[in-house]
Amino acid sequence: xxxxxxxxxxxxxxxxxxxxxxxxxxxxxxxxxxxxxxxxxxxxxxxxxxxxxxxxxxxxxxxxxxxxxxxxxxxxxxxxxxxxxxxxxxxxxxxxxxxxxxxxxxxxxxxxxxxxxxxxxxxxxxxxxxxxxxxxxxxxxxxxxxxxxxxxxxxxxxxxxxxxxxxxxxxxxxxxxxxxxxxxxxxxxxxxxxxxxxxxxxxxxxxxxxxxxxxxxxxxxxxxxxxxxxxxxxxxxxxxxxxxxxxxxxxxxxxxxxxxxxxxxxxxxxxxxxxxxxxxxxxxxxxxxxxxxxxxxxxxxxxxxxxxxxxxxxxxxxxxxxxxxxx
Length: 327
Description:
Blueprint (H helix, E strand, L loop, with lengths): L1 E3 L4 E3 L5 H10 L5 E4 L7 H9 L9 E5 L4 H10 L3 E4 L4 H11 L15 H4 L14 H7 L4 H14 L3 H10 L3 H17 L3 H15 L8 H20 L15 H16 L5 H16 L1 H12 L3 H14 L7
Helix pairs in contact: 1-2, 7-11, 8-9, 8-11, 9-10, 10-11, 12-13, 12-15, 13-14, 14-15
């Protein structure tokens, strides 16, 4: 459970649709934000089942997904959802939707108190924006944290520059599921980092992969993806952001490690862009707590923005290392 700071809203997290169904049997919630991409049970199936529960036939359910196509919106509506919030989430849109759907007693905005943008986001540092990377957009999603944003750009150029090759290899091997996952992950991180052109290219490609088009019909899209990825990576390298720091030596506070692990787990579940900030705080502490060898797989997955796999590694660490068992 978390508190949405400044608005007195209690937020309960479910790790997947099956867990959400179990939670609604124990408590009545005023609103449900339904992630469409979940393990065990996806958002559409979870919504259909929730709507069969008499107490939840009229509770607002808002879809949260990176897919903004009209077909996706119709699927959400057909499943019984009331609204649609596109990822990456614009804070102003989120608060506006909450104000619209929540009972007035639960949100200041619904009671007539306007939501001020200064309460939602800190001031964003003004920096020049290259043509393919809208840095102001990326900074907005990172809460104005310029160092974290720059580190994410460097990691993107290092890790994702060959995604087009990986995606094509998966398609040629007949593994459309992996190709779709690569495209979906790339679409999400490109939107978060302010790469609108890249997001548009990969969104089209993802849709065609999901439609089951054969690989030879996707050649133009893959070529375009490869070109845009190369151009984006070139712009990032031209910023000269790569300035590796020396390894940190810090005192390990067990309570602090547990706090950061709890926060990281919750953020990974929701694909929160602030995950990278939390990881930067946790990385040196976790490495000294469990050792570099055990921490390395988690570090690799987080810094490649593969949050679902990172969640699996984190939970394995929590389960098997008593020194950081969460409470």
